[in-house]
């Protein structure tokens, strides 16, 4: 069973870069093709898609927190 772990936004970015180097696609290009069904459902590819989803959903939260720190 996988154990939950905290990951920083920087670590998410680094992991995405690792996948980009490994597969030779930008994450955005990969994700478009993945959603269109042009890639299989290998664990590694599903992990890449999942990490990108985390990246996309955490960006607005990170930006909000940064703006709150500027106000305080």
Features:
0% strand; 74% helix; mainly alpha; 72 residues
Task: Report on this structure.
By secondary structure, this protein is an all-alpha fold. The chain has one domain. The protein contains three helices and no strands. Helix 1 packs antiparallel against helix 3 (43-71) and helix 2 packs across helix 3. The model has no long low-confidence stretch (mean pLDDT 86).
Number of helical segments with 4 or more residues: 3
Spatial gap, N to C terminus: 41 Å
- Rg over alpha carbons: 14 Å
User: What best-fitting shape do the alpha-carbon axes yield?
Assistant: globular
Structural class: mainly alpha
Please describe the biggest sheet, giving its number of strands, its sense, and whether it closes into a barrel: none
What are the secondary-structure elements, in order, as H or E?
HHH
How many independent structural domains? Answer: 1
Percent of residues in helices: over 70%
Assembly status: single chain
Strand content: under 5%
Mean pLDDT figure: 86
Count of individual beta strands: 0
Low-confidence sequence ranges:
none
């Amino acid at each position: 069973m996988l154990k939950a772990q905290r990951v920083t936004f920087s670590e998410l970015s680094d992991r995405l870069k690792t996948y980009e180097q490994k597969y030779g696609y930008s994450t955005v290009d990969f994700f478009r093709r993945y959603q269109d069904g042009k890639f299989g459902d290998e664990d590694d590819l599903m992990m890449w898609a999942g990490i990108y989803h985390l990246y996309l959903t955490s960006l607005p939260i990170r930006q909000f927190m940064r703006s709150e720190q500027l106000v305080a």
